[in-house]
Amino acid sequence: MATSCTTSGVQGFVRAVVDDVPRARKVLDREHISYTEHDVLYVELQNLSGALAGLSEKLAAQNINVTSAYGAAPKGSRKAIVIFRVSDLDKDASIR
Fold first, then answer.
1. What is the tally of structural domains in the chain?
2. Quick check: pTM over 0.70?
3. Where are the extended beta strands (E) located within the chain?
4. Which domain holds residue 63?
5. 49 & 89 share domain
6. Where are the beta strands (DSSP E) in 9-78?
7. Of 30, 43, 25, which is closest to residue 16 (Cα–Cα)?
8. Digits of tens for pLDDT over the chain (96 positions)?
9. What burial letters (b/e) apply to 61-82, b meaning 16+ CB within 10 Å?
Protein backbone atom coordinates (compact mmCIF):
# COMPACT_ATOMS: atom_id res chain seq x y z
CA MET A 1 0.00 0.00 0.00
CA ALA A 2 1.17 3.51 -0.79
CA THR A 3 -0.34 6.70 0.64
CA SER A 4 -0.13 10.42 0.08
CA CYS A 5 -1.78 13.24 2.02
CA THR A 6 -2.30 16.81 0.76
CA THR A 7 -4.38 19.85 1.58
CA SER A 8 -6.07 22.50 -0.52
CA GLY A 9 -7.38 25.37 1.56
CA VAL A 10 -9.40 23.85 4.39
CA GLN A 11 -9.92 20.52 2.63
CA GLY A 12 -7.61 17.54 2.88
CA PHE A 13 -7.06 14.60 0.56
CA VAL A 14 -5.66 11.16 1.22
CA ARG A 15 -4.62 9.02 -1.72
CA ALA A 16 -4.12 5.31 -1.12
CA VAL A 17 -2.95 2.64 -3.50
CA VAL A 18 -4.33 -0.73 -2.38
CA ASP A 19 -3.96 -4.30 -3.57
CA ASP A 20 -7.44 -5.40 -2.43
CA VAL A 21 -9.94 -2.96 -3.93
CA PRO A 22 -13.13 -4.77 -2.80
CA ARG A 23 -11.89 -4.85 0.80
CA ALA A 24 -10.91 -1.15 0.69
CA ARG A 25 -14.35 -0.25 -0.70
CA LYS A 26 -16.05 -2.24 2.05
CA VAL A 27 -14.11 -0.46 4.80
CA LEU A 28 -14.59 3.01 3.32
CA ASP A 29 -18.31 2.41 2.78
CA ARG A 30 -18.73 1.06 6.31
CA GLU A 31 -17.05 4.18 7.73
CA HIS A 32 -19.05 6.49 5.40
CA ILE A 33 -15.88 7.90 3.85
CA SER A 34 -16.31 9.29 0.34
CA TYR A 35 -13.82 8.16 -2.30
CA THR A 36 -13.12 7.90 -5.99
CA GLU A 37 -11.24 5.10 -7.73
CA HIS A 38 -8.57 5.32 -10.41
CA ASP A 39 -6.44 2.64 -12.03
CA VAL A 40 -2.69 3.23 -11.79
CA LEU A 41 0.52 2.21 -13.51
CA TYR A 42 2.79 0.12 -11.24
CA VAL A 43 6.41 -0.11 -12.38
CA GLU A 44 9.50 -1.73 -10.90
CA LEU A 45 12.68 0.02 -12.04
CA GLN A 46 16.34 -0.68 -11.53
CA ASN A 47 17.45 1.40 -8.55
CA LEU A 48 19.97 3.30 -10.68
CA SER A 49 20.52 6.95 -11.54
CA GLY A 50 18.50 7.86 -14.62
CA ALA A 51 16.01 4.97 -14.47
CA LEU A 52 13.11 7.27 -13.64
CA ALA A 53 14.21 9.73 -16.33
CA GLY A 54 14.18 6.93 -18.90
CA LEU A 55 10.66 5.92 -17.98
CA SER A 56 9.53 9.56 -18.00
CA GLU A 57 10.92 9.97 -21.51
CA LYS A 58 8.97 6.93 -22.69
CA LEU A 59 5.76 8.32 -21.18
CA ALA A 60 6.37 11.72 -22.78
CA ALA A 61 7.05 10.14 -26.19
CA GLN A 62 3.57 8.55 -26.02
CA ASN A 63 1.97 11.85 -24.88
CA ILE A 64 1.10 10.32 -21.51
CA ASN A 65 0.90 12.83 -18.68
CA VAL A 66 1.62 11.91 -15.06
CA THR A 67 -0.97 13.40 -12.70
CA SER A 68 0.43 11.92 -9.49
CA ALA A 69 3.22 9.58 -8.46
CA TYR A 70 4.43 7.54 -5.50
CA GLY A 71 7.77 5.86 -5.19
CA ALA A 72 10.08 3.97 -2.89
CA ALA A 73 13.57 2.54 -3.13
CA PRO A 74 14.75 1.09 0.16
CA LYS A 75 18.42 1.69 0.88
CA GLY A 76 20.52 -1.02 -0.71
CA SER A 77 17.65 -2.37 -2.83
CA ARG A 78 18.27 -3.18 -6.49
CA LYS A 79 14.69 -2.26 -7.41
CA ALA A 80 12.64 0.89 -7.01
CA ILE A 81 8.85 0.84 -7.08
CA VAL A 82 7.00 3.69 -8.76
CA ILE A 83 3.23 4.07 -8.99
CA PHE A 84 1.82 6.61 -11.43
CA ARG A 85 -1.64 7.91 -12.13
CA VAL A 86 -1.43 8.69 -15.83
CA SER A 87 -3.61 10.36 -18.44
CA ASP A 88 -3.86 7.29 -20.69
CA LEU A 89 -3.51 3.94 -18.98
CA ASP A 90 -4.28 2.03 -22.20
CA LYS A 91 -1.09 3.31 -23.87
CA ASP A 92 1.14 2.32 -20.95
CA ALA A 93 1.23 -1.40 -21.86
CA SER A 94 3.78 -0.72 -24.60
CA ILE A 95 6.04 1.20 -22.22
CA ARG A 96 6.81 -1.38 -19.54
1. 2
2. yes
3. 2-8, 11-17, 41-46, 66-72, 79-86
4. 39-96
5. yes
6. 11-17, 41-46, 66-72
7. 25
8. 788 888 999 999 898 989 899 999 999 999 999 999 998 988 999 999 999 999 999 899 888 899 888 888 888 899 999 999 888 877 755 665
9. eeebeeeebbeebeeeeeebbb
